Amino acid sequence: MGYYRNPILPGFHPDPSICRVNRDYYLVTSSFEFFPGVPLFHSEDLIHWEQIGHVLTRESQLVLEKCPVSGGIWAPTIRYNKGRFYVTTTNFSHGGNFIVWTDDIDGEWSDPIWIKQKGIDPSLFFDDDGTVYFVSTYDMPDGQAIGQCIIDIETGNMLTETKIIWNGSGGKYPEGPHMFRKNGIYYLMIAEGGTEYGHMETIARSSSPWGPFIGCPRNPILTHRDTRLEEFQALGHADLVVTPEGDSWMIFHGIRTSQYMLHHLGRETMIAPVSWVEDGWPLVYGGKNITPIMEVLDIPDEKFVTKIQGPDLIESLFLDKYWSFLRNPDMKSYSLSERPGSICLIGSKVSLNDCASPTFIGRRQQHFNLQAKTIVDYLPKKDNDMAGMTIFHTNEHHYDLAIRLCNGKRVAILRKRVGDMQTESNPVVLPEEGKIILYIIAQKLEYSFFVGTEVMERVQVGTGRTQLLSTECMPMTFTGCFIGLFSEGQSKAWFEKFNYTPN
Predict the structure, then answer these.
(1) Which of 9, 25, 74, 479 would staple 43 via disulfide (CB 3.0–4.6 Å)?
(2) Which residues on adjacent β-strands are paired with residue 20?
(3) Which range is least confidently modeled, 49-53, 231-235, 276-280, 300-304?
(4) Confidence category of residue 66, pLDDT binned at 50, 70, 90
């Protein structure tokens, strides 16, 4: 027997989709208003993953101007067919459903091929006869259902009208459809119940890709809607992959609550083995609940140590694939050339409070308990200038450890924005010049913010509850918290190092 840990991609990595090419596995997740779009991961064993890039790296592929919170890119699907990779997804804010492709997984992806079929959560199914089916959540006058058409994969043209092929098992919001074929039978797997605490995965099958689809008598095949809240919650939005040995695995997302009915890390990617029982239906993890420690018959060597994502030198910032901007960035606000080994963030009139693209670069918070640390060289020029480190969820929910001017003195403050309320801590006076060390210590229920220098002892500036940055304390976001660097106003801030250390 062996063991592995869930989640396999901690932090904000929702709506996972997976494909296999020989012994290599590739996985994508949603990115919403963050740029670049659609994080892309690689694994050789399904358990240990490395981010190798993004699918959408150009504004011609991903327009996020005026994208609302949790708009942008929803629910991508990755597939491989005849030497080519395809990703289909929805830009919920600009244009709808589209496909991009590449012949080189490490190279650039094409510009979008737009698909006229409406709805969200698109997926592709390549049948053995060469037919390409495009399936998505489809809006009906009285709700949602799963719609399908045949497309020309080269042009995106619809070759048939959309047909409703399944209404689901009765749960609200049937979505996230994926079709596959096993032993001559077509299976359609979808998410239902909404991506909240009633989330679930269901499945149906038919002798034809057009149906009629008959639901599994044991639906839902995956859910934690009736489990204790200290366990994983909101499991769903799944995809399937088969190993070269013929074993089936399911990837899906779920959440870890910090306390009763609250989560702030976002939806995280998890995995479980799937067996096929005598009646031809899948059984996920033997029908047991999904746990942090999963027991399976065969996994890779447990001596393998997963690398924690987090650069030491800031000069590697743009090379490390897991950093993100908010919406389409103005790259004139970022420079790696002014000081070797530093990144310069040039502020603007746009602040973290605006639903726009402030000068910000951040990485996902992946652990409840951690320390983040950066060194900044910053002399604010005007009262409205500030720069520092932030715990960011949305423009209305973020905690900012900032250096600014107060009565002509350089100080550190903790600015906390929660909904329509904003507060600032008492200022901590800093040396008139010189580099400042900023620290954020995260625990499950609280963030603590500190400043110091090489000669000044670390001083606490303030604290903030994780509760108020939780999805449930705002208008139902689909994202999670980021730890970021930012600059506002007219001044330049040079950040030398960034360390992310789980405790």
Answers:
(1) 25
(2) 25
(3) 300-304
(4) very high
Q: Which residue has the tokens 């079709």?
A: 179
Tokens read off for 400: 């900012």
Structure tokens that stand for 226 in this block: 């009736």
Query: Same domain for 265 and 392?
Result: no
CB neighbour list of residue 159: distance below 8 Å, 6 or more residues apart: 149, 150, 151, 152
- What is the C-alpha to C-alpha distance for residues 256 and 266, in angstroms, rounded to an integer? 8
Q: Give the list of residues 6+ apart from residue 418 with CB closer than 8 angstroms, or none.
A: 396, 397, 468, 473
- Give residue 256's identity as a one-letter amino acid code: R
Residue from 15, 33, 201, 268 carrying the catalytic annotation: 15
Contact 113, 152 (CB under 8 A): no
DSSP symbol at 473: G
CATH number of the domain bearing residue 270? 2.115.10.20
Residue 318 has pLDDT above 70, yes or no: no
* CA 225 – CA 83 distance, rounded (Å): 40
Mean pLDDT of the chain: 93
**Which of the four pLDDT bands, split at 50, 70 and 90, describes residue 301?**
very low
Confirm whether 302 is a catalytic residue: no
Backbone angles phi, psi at 40, to 5 degrees: -120, 130
Alpha carbon of 23 to those of 3, 19, 20, 246: distances in Å? 21, 10, 7, 12
Cis check for the bond before 380: say yes or no (omega within 30 of 0).
Answer: no
Closest CA to 329 of 1, 36, 21: 36
- Contact residues for 428 (Cβ-Cβ < 8 A; gap 6+): 411, 412, 413, 451, 459, 461
**188-213 pLDDT per residue, tens:** 999 999 999 999 999 999 999 999 99
Domain residue limits at 135:
2-296
Strand partners, 27: 18, 41
21 with 150, same domain: the answer is: yes
Choose, from 33, 175, 192, 488, the residue flagged as catalytic. 175
DSSP notation for 36-65: SEEEEEEESSSSS-EEEEEEE-STTT---T
Q: Name the band, by pLDDT with cuts 50, 70 and 90, for residue 429.
A: very high
**In the numeric block, which tokens belong to residue 304?**
């393998």
Strands (DSSP E) contained in 243-308 are: 248-255, 268-276, 282-284, 293-296
Residue 309: DSSP 8-state: P
Counting the structural domains of the chain, the total is 2
Q: What pLDDT is stored for residue 119 in this prediction?
A: 95
In a domain, 301, yes or no: no
Domain end among 270, 296, 322: 296
Question: What are the Cα distances from residue 182, in Å, to 24, 127, 207, 241, 441?
Answer: 21, 11, 10, 12, 49
Query: Do 427 and 400 lie in a common domain?
Result: yes
Instruction: Say if residues 240 and 249 touch (Cβ distance below 8 Å).
Output: yes
Residue 233 belongs to a domain: yes
Residue 129 annotated in active site? no
Asked whether residue 95 carries a pLDDT value surpassing 60, the answer given is yes
Nearest residue to 466 via CA among 448, 439, 442, 445: 445
For 447-474, the pLDDT digits (tens) are 999 999 988 889 999 999 999 999 999 9
**305 domain residue, yes or no:** no
